[in-house]
Amino acid sequence: DAGVTQSPTHLIKTRGQQVTLRCSPKSGHDTVSWYQQALGQGPQFIFQYYEEEERQRGNFPDRFSGHQFPNYSSELNVNALLLGDSALYLCASSFLSMADEQFFGPGTRLTVL
Amino acid sequence: GNSVTQMEGPVTLSEEAFLTINCTYTATGYPSLFWYVQYPGEGLQLLLKATKADDKGSNKGFEATYRKETTSFHLEKGSVQVSDSAVYFCALSPYSGAGSYQLTFGKGTKLSVIP
Protein backbone atom coordinates (compact mmCIF):
# COMPACT_ATOMS: atom_id res chain seq x y z
CA ASP A 1 0.00 0.00 0.00
CA ALA A 2 1.62 3.22 -1.16
CA GLY A 3 1.76 6.01 1.33
CA VAL A 4 1.52 9.69 0.53
CA THR A 5 3.64 10.62 -2.46
CA GLN A 6 4.76 14.06 -3.55
CA SER A 7 6.44 15.42 -6.65
CA PRO A 8 8.86 16.79 -7.43
CA THR A 9 11.35 16.07 -4.67
CA HIS A 10 13.29 19.26 -5.19
CA LEU A 11 12.59 22.42 -7.12
CA ILE A 12 14.54 25.61 -7.76
CA LYS A 13 12.74 28.74 -8.93
CA THR A 14 13.50 32.43 -9.15
CA ARG A 15 11.61 35.29 -7.56
CA GLY A 16 8.37 36.18 -9.29
CA GLN A 17 7.90 32.77 -10.88
CA GLN A 18 5.03 30.40 -10.25
CA VAL A 19 5.26 26.83 -9.00
CA THR A 20 2.96 23.80 -8.79
CA LEU A 21 3.52 20.98 -6.33
CA ARG A 22 1.67 17.69 -6.48
CA CYS A 23 0.45 15.19 -3.93
CA SER A 24 -1.15 11.75 -4.12
CA PRO A 25 -2.83 10.73 -0.87
CA LYS A 26 -2.58 7.40 0.87
CA SER A 27 -4.94 4.87 -0.69
CA GLY A 28 -8.52 5.44 0.44
CA HIS A 29 -7.92 8.83 2.06
CA ASP A 30 -10.26 11.60 0.99
CA THR A 31 -8.77 14.66 2.68
CA VAL A 32 -5.52 16.44 1.84
CA SER A 33 -3.76 19.11 3.86
CA TRP A 34 -0.72 21.18 2.93
CA TYR A 35 1.93 22.50 5.29
CA GLN A 36 4.96 24.74 4.89
CA GLN A 37 8.04 23.89 6.95
CA ALA A 38 10.74 26.54 6.99
CA LEU A 39 14.24 25.44 7.91
CA GLY A 40 14.50 24.72 11.64
CA GLN A 41 10.80 25.33 12.24
CA GLY A 42 7.70 23.25 12.70
CA PRO A 43 5.23 22.83 9.84
CA GLN A 44 2.63 25.56 9.39
CA PHE A 45 -0.82 24.76 8.07
CA ILE A 46 -1.63 26.24 4.66
CA PHE A 47 -5.03 24.73 3.79
CA GLN A 48 -7.07 21.55 3.65
CA TYR A 49 -9.16 20.07 0.83
CA TYR A 50 -12.08 17.69 0.91
CA GLU A 51 -14.48 16.90 -1.93
CA GLU A 52 -12.55 19.29 -4.14
CA GLU A 53 -13.34 22.20 -1.83
CA GLU A 54 -11.04 24.18 0.42
CA ARG A 55 -12.37 23.48 3.90
CA GLN A 56 -9.99 25.43 6.08
CA ARG A 57 -7.15 27.85 5.51
CA GLY A 58 -4.24 28.98 7.61
CA ASN A 59 -2.63 32.40 7.68
CA PHE A 60 -1.20 32.39 4.15
CA PRO A 61 -1.73 34.98 1.41
CA ASP A 62 -3.84 34.41 -1.68
CA ARG A 63 -0.65 33.72 -3.67
CA PHE A 64 -1.04 30.24 -2.23
CA SER A 65 -3.85 28.31 -3.87
CA GLY A 66 -4.76 24.71 -4.29
CA HIS A 67 -6.88 22.18 -6.00
CA GLN A 68 -8.16 18.71 -5.32
CA PHE A 69 -9.10 16.34 -8.12
CA PRO A 70 -11.86 13.70 -8.19
CA ASN A 71 -9.26 11.00 -7.44
CA TYR A 72 -8.38 12.96 -4.24
CA SER A 73 -4.93 13.98 -5.45
CA SER A 74 -4.04 17.59 -4.91
CA GLU A 75 -1.93 20.46 -6.17
CA LEU A 76 -0.47 23.43 -4.36
CA ASN A 77 0.20 26.51 -6.48
CA VAL A 78 2.28 29.45 -5.40
CA ASN A 79 2.36 32.60 -7.54
CA ALA A 80 4.81 35.51 -7.52
CA LEU A 81 7.40 33.58 -5.53
CA LEU A 82 9.33 35.36 -2.81
CA LEU A 83 12.63 34.38 -1.24
CA GLY A 84 10.72 33.65 1.96
CA ASP A 85 8.72 30.94 0.21
CA SER A 86 11.80 28.72 0.28
CA ALA A 87 10.79 25.79 2.47
CA LEU A 88 9.83 22.13 2.61
CA TYR A 89 6.22 21.72 1.54
CA LEU A 90 4.49 18.79 3.12
CA CYS A 91 1.30 17.10 2.05
CA ALA A 92 -0.74 15.11 4.54
CA SER A 93 -3.73 12.89 3.89
CA SER A 94 -6.43 11.47 6.11
CA PHE A 95 -9.98 10.26 6.28
CA LEU A 96 -12.32 13.15 7.01
CA SER A 97 -13.92 11.01 9.71
CA MET A 98 -10.50 10.60 11.38
CA ALA A 99 -8.84 13.79 10.31
CA ASP A 100 -6.76 13.97 13.45
CA GLU A 101 -4.63 11.10 12.09
CA GLN A 102 -2.76 12.68 9.23
CA PHE A 103 -0.17 10.77 7.20
CA PHE A 104 2.61 12.90 5.76
CA GLY A 105 4.52 12.62 2.53
CA PRO A 106 8.28 13.18 2.27
CA GLY A 107 7.81 16.73 1.06
CA THR A 108 8.97 18.92 -1.80
CA ARG A 109 11.98 21.12 -1.12
CA LEU A 110 11.43 24.48 -2.84
CA THR A 111 14.31 26.90 -3.18
CA VAL A 112 13.62 30.41 -4.45
CA LEU A 113 16.64 32.33 -5.71
CA GLY B 1 -5.00 31.34 19.22
CA ASN B 2 -3.56 27.86 19.52
CA SER B 3 0.16 27.41 20.18
CA VAL B 4 2.66 24.74 21.16
CA THR B 5 5.92 25.33 22.99
CA GLN B 6 8.52 22.62 23.23
CA MET B 7 11.96 22.55 24.75
CA GLU B 8 14.81 23.92 22.74
CA GLY B 9 17.27 21.49 21.26
CA PRO B 10 19.44 19.98 20.28
CA VAL B 11 19.42 17.21 22.85
CA THR B 12 22.33 14.78 22.91
CA LEU B 13 22.08 11.59 24.94
CA SER B 14 24.08 8.43 25.31
CA GLU B 15 22.47 5.16 24.29
CA GLU B 16 20.18 3.73 27.01
CA ALA B 17 19.73 7.12 28.68
CA PHE B 18 16.31 8.39 29.77
CA LEU B 19 14.63 10.90 27.49
CA THR B 20 12.22 13.70 28.32
CA ILE B 21 11.15 16.34 25.82
CA ASN B 22 8.87 18.94 27.36
CA CYS B 23 5.80 20.25 25.53
CA THR B 24 3.18 22.71 26.72
CA TYR B 25 0.24 24.05 24.80
CA THR B 26 -2.28 26.86 24.67
CA ALA B 27 -5.69 26.10 23.24
CA THR B 28 -9.36 26.62 23.87
CA GLY B 29 -11.52 23.64 24.64
CA TYR B 30 -10.15 20.12 24.59
CA PRO B 31 -7.61 19.66 21.82
CA SER B 32 -6.10 16.38 20.68
CA LEU B 33 -2.35 16.18 21.28
CA PHE B 34 0.30 14.48 19.18
CA TRP B 35 3.96 13.70 18.92
CA TYR B 36 5.39 13.40 15.42
CA VAL B 37 8.90 12.26 14.50
CA GLN B 38 10.91 13.30 11.45
CA TYR B 39 13.89 11.18 10.48
CA PRO B 40 16.54 12.75 8.24
CA GLY B 41 15.29 13.21 4.69
CA GLU B 42 11.81 11.92 5.48
CA GLY B 43 8.35 13.31 6.15
CA LEU B 44 6.68 13.39 9.53
CA GLN B 45 5.43 10.18 11.11
CA LEU B 46 2.82 10.07 13.83
CA LEU B 47 4.49 8.65 16.93
CA LEU B 48 1.62 8.78 19.42
CA LYS B 49 -1.49 10.73 20.31
CA ALA B 50 -3.94 11.41 23.13
CA THR B 51 -7.41 12.80 22.69
CA LYS B 52 -8.59 13.61 26.22
CA ALA B 53 -7.26 14.54 29.62
CA ASP B 54 -5.27 11.86 31.46
CA ASP B 55 -4.98 9.72 28.32
CA LYS B 56 -1.56 8.17 27.83
CA GLY B 57 -0.32 7.70 24.29
CA SER B 58 2.41 5.14 23.72
CA ASN B 59 4.34 3.64 20.83
CA LYS B 60 7.80 2.09 20.30
CA GLY B 61 8.70 2.63 23.96
CA PHE B 62 7.73 6.31 23.88
CA GLU B 63 4.99 7.63 26.17
CA ALA B 64 3.22 10.92 26.77
CA THR B 65 0.35 11.77 29.13
CA TYR B 66 -2.24 14.48 28.40
CA ARG B 67 -2.18 16.73 31.46
CA LYS B 68 -4.90 19.32 31.23
CA GLU B 69 -4.15 20.88 34.61
CA THR B 70 -0.63 21.77 33.49
CA THR B 71 -1.46 21.99 29.73
CA SER B 72 1.42 19.64 29.04
CA PHE B 73 2.19 16.57 26.93
CA HIS B 74 5.79 15.64 27.70
CA LEU B 75 7.44 12.87 25.68
CA GLU B 76 9.41 10.22 27.57
CA LYS B 77 11.37 7.08 26.79
CA GLY B 78 13.15 4.97 29.33
CA SER B 79 16.09 3.86 27.21
CA VAL B 80 16.94 5.58 23.93
CA GLN B 81 18.70 3.95 20.99
CA VAL B 82 20.84 5.39 18.24
CA SER B 83 17.94 4.75 15.86
CA ASP B 84 15.81 7.24 17.85
CA SER B 85 17.94 10.10 16.53
CA ALA B 86 15.48 12.40 14.79
CA VAL B 87 13.53 15.63 15.18
CA TYR B 88 10.46 15.37 17.43
CA PHE B 89 7.46 17.67 17.05
CA CYS B 90 4.68 18.22 19.53
CA ALA B 91 1.38 19.22 17.92
CA LEU B 92 -2.27 19.85 18.68
CA SER B 93 -5.52 19.91 16.77
CA PRO B 94 -8.49 21.76 18.19
CA TYR B 95 -11.15 19.11 17.88
CA SER B 96 -11.71 15.45 18.51
CA GLY B 97 -13.85 13.32 16.23
CA ALA B 98 -14.93 13.95 12.68
CA GLY B 99 -14.32 17.31 11.13
CA SER B 100 -11.64 19.52 9.78
CA TYR B 101 -8.28 19.49 11.55
CA GLN B 102 -5.61 22.13 11.48
CA LEU B 103 -2.50 20.81 13.19
CA THR B 104 -0.45 23.39 15.10
CA PHE B 105 3.16 22.30 15.63
CA GLY B 106 5.94 23.27 17.97
CA LYS B 107 9.32 24.18 16.53
CA GLY B 108 10.74 20.71 17.00
CA THR B 109 13.48 19.23 19.17
CA LYS B 110 16.43 17.52 17.56
CA LEU B 111 17.59 14.42 19.39
CA SER B 112 20.98 12.85 18.79
CA VAL B 113 21.80 9.55 20.49
CA ILE B 114 25.44 8.56 20.60
CA PRO B 115 26.66 4.97 21.11
Structure overview:
The complex is a heterodimer of chains A (113) and B (115). By secondary structure, chain A is mainly beta. Chain A is 0% helix and 50% strand. Chain A contains no helices and 11 strands. Chain A has strands at 5-7, 10-13, 19-24, 31-37, 44-50, 53-57, 64-68, 74-78, 87-94, 103-104, 108-112. In chain A, the strands form 2 sheets. In chain A, strands 2, 4, 5, 6, 9, 10 and 11 form a 7-stranded mixed sheet that branches. Chain A has a 4-stranded antiparallel sheet with strand order 1-3-8-7, with no helix packed on it. In chain A, a hairpin with a 6-residue loop joins strand 4 and strand 5 (44-50). Chain A is globular. The mean pLDDT of chain A is 93. Chain B is mostly beta strands. Helix content of chain B is 0%, strand content 49%. Chain B has strands at 3-6, 11-14, 19-21, 23-26, 32-38, 44-50, 56-59, 62-65, 75-77, 86-93, 104-105, 109-114. In chain B, the strands form 3 sheets. In chain B, strands 2, 5, 6, 10, 11 and 12 form a 6-stranded mixed sheet that branches. A 4-stranded antiparallel sheet of chain B has the order 3-9-8-7, with no helix packed on it. In chain B, strands 1-4 form a two-stranded antiparallel ribbon. In chain B, strand 5 (32-38) and strand 6 (44-50) form a beta hairpin. The radius of gyration of chain B is 14 Å and the shape is globular. Chain A binds chain B through residues 4, 33, 35, 40-45, 48, 50, 55-56, 58, 90, 92, 94, 96-107, and chain B through 4, 32, 34, 36, 41-46, 49, 51, 89, 91, 93, 95-96, 98-108.
